Amino acid sequence: MKITDLGGKYVSVKISNGEIFKGFVEFVETEADADDGVSSIDLKGTKQFPYNDVNLRDDEIVSFKIINKKDIQ
Fold this sequence. Notes:
Blueprint: E1 10-15, E2 20-29, E3 40-44, E4 54-57, E5 61-66
Antiparallel strand pairs: 1-2, 1-5, 2-3, 3-4
């Protein structure tokens, strides 16, 4: 599975610095759509940024998994 398959799902994402973000994938940008050719996702409702979306690029994501909404907090 690629990050571009995660649209509309709740996920847990680990990035290269070890930080883990949990939230809802509100937007997916594919390689073809990205100016720099790197796909990315926008997560909504993370504990780090509860009122803003956070953008995570494919080249900084180490791993991800689909989770249940109740597992966000």
